[in-house]
Amino acid sequence: MRNWRAEFDAQHRRGRFFGMTLHPQHIGWCHRLAGLGRVSGRLAGLSDLWNPTGVECARYWTGAYPAAKSLQLAPSIWQDYPGSLS
Question: How many other CB atoms are there within 10 angstroms of residue 36's CB atom?
Fold first, then answer.
């Protein structure tokens, strides 16, 4: 719990993304679930925290950074040859 809190605080101060990966075989212990509940309760109390779903993140990103303006791909160096399966 202390590590989660410290990592979140460090990212939040900088206005950065914070993601937690929770593996069921590790988080499923009662004491860890209780700690997770305390951390998530603390985060829920922050008024400036955006806790989006994956779809909400994708909508934000495609709206803020449309591919036509933001995505600059270099010309492909891949060459197709006669009879290739690509």
Answer: 15
Decide: 51 and 39 in contact? Cβ < 8 Å. Answer: no
Express each pLDDT in 22-81 by its tens digit: 888 888 888 888 888 998 899 999 999 998 888 999 999 999 999 888 888 888 788 788
For 1, the token pair is 């719990």
Listed by start position, the domains of the chain span: 1-12+30-66
> Which SS3 state, helix, strand or coil, does residue 45 take?
coil
- Look up the pTM and report it: 0.60
DSSP annotation of 14 reads: T
